[in-house]
Amino acid sequence: ISFSLTMSDLPVLLFRQPSNYLMAVFLYKNQIYYKKGDCLFMIDTQKIGEFLTYLRKKKNYTQKEVGTFLHVSFQAVSRWENGVVLPSLDLLQELARIYEVTVDEILNGCFRSDLLTQESLGFSPLVFDRFNEEIWNQYEMPNPINPSFRGGICFMDELHYLVSRTLEPGHKQEIAILDNYRTALSEDTVSFLLNEMICARSRPLFFSMSFLSGSNKDSLIERILLGMRKEAGKYKIPLLDIQRSVKKSIHSDALLLTTTCIGKGTKKKILPIESGDVLFYLPSNGVHHHGFTLIKALLEKEPELKNLRVNNHTFLDEIMKPSRAYWETLHFFMEREEIKEFVHITQFGLFRNLKRVLPSDCQAELDLSVVRIPEIFRILKAKLHFSSYEMLNSFNCGIGMILVVSKDLSDRIQSEIGYKCRKIGIIKKGSEGIKIIKGLNW
């Protein structure tokens, strides 16, 4: 059956699974792939063979018995299990029924529960959102400056306010310390907090840091402090307060670093978001700060991935790039009343962060085909077997910051920001929240 794919014209076979969706299996450059929805997965015949062997032995079947069930020779079953060939498409469904698994699981060569997901790692965004909603209802902590900003805001009077944003220890920090990316860690910390200050329309007053370590060794802390002072100094921001604690309960080589930025802002007369407003995006240079729980689990599963070449760097170099700082590009816009909202794409990706700023009667219609996707996300998508939706719920996928601008000001603001600022969507009346008009061009 003819089937249109973006890569080229490819020979494709289609079959329908019990769940009533179509799957395409095809050959490209002598490598077998399968396509489900918008996902493209390379098939590892050796891994599939080992999985089929495991499933057969788990059922206490011989190769001859499986061959009898399927009306094929035991030699055919042996060739499947040795990774020489794949079962034909009609036999895949029958194998899945016999072994009580899905065709997806056979083609992945593992059980669905073995795949890395947010839920399997215990940090579903739904759980976080439920917790935040409970906190909101209990303590009534409205954010009048920017609903997407997750720090603290305290008004000193009707116009002036203080902002506090903390970057807590995470898996990126853990990898940076373990693999000697301390300079990158300092740059990443400053960039992330400055991007958050933009969202809160505040100018940073100072940084403060707190170290919790398992030993009295000072050399590591001193190197990180030196990097932080140097990076903060680029923006003329003082590093005001440093605290250090040693706990014997922490591993002697462990170090937990918490950094807080305090800023000051003045409330502006910003017009509310409404139908007709334009959405621009500024590109990210890679993974930025969030998504590292998945990445750490992936590296534990495939440690050799660290040395994979990506854009003339190692995989580890690529994921440890400091976040792109948008301060030089955007900070002067905070003094003007032209950009309605700044949305930093952080934890749990695009949908969760953008949805926070939308009025209840408006929806964002996005054309994601304009996004330039850094190569690192293509690799993560293939390794994690994620759909576009799962990727956008886990990583920034090339979208570092989104700006909401009035239509009549959009051309001028885009011109002032420069070529990196690209239109990604519009605001319309509606209740769908976020509507994808065109998906990511993987």
Walkthrough of the structure:
There is one protein chain. By secondary structure, the protein is α+β, with helices and mostly antiparallel strands. It contains 16 helices and 17 strands. The protein has helices spanning 45-58, 63-70, 74-81, 89-99, 103-108, 125-139, 171-178, 182-199, 219-234, 292-301, 315-319, 327-330, 349-355, 375-384, 388-392, 407-417; strands at residues 12-16, 22-28, 31-36, 39-42, 152-155, 160-167, 202-213, 239-246, 255-266, 278-283, 309-310, 313-314, 339-344, 362-367, 399-405, 422-429, 434-438. The strands form four sheets. A six-stranded mixed beta sheet has the order 13-15-10-16-14-17. Helix 2 (63-70) packs across helix 3 and helix 8 packs across helix 9. The protein is globular and about 80 Å long. The two termini are 23 Å apart. The model is unreliable at 1-22 (pLDDT under 50).
Q: Briefly, what is this?
A:
With 442 residues, the protein is an alpha+beta fold.
> What structural category do the secondary elements indicate?
alpha+beta
Rg over alpha carbons: 25 Å
Instruction: State the helicity in percent bands.
Output: 25-40%
Estimate the strand proportion.
Answer: 15-25%
The coarse overall form would be globular
Largest sheet: 6 strands, mixed
Q: What is the average per-residue confidence, as pLDDT, rounded to a whole number?
A: 84
DSSP E strands, number: 17
Q: What is the CA–CA distance across the termini?
A: 23 Å
Strand order of the largest sheet: 13-15-10-16-14-17
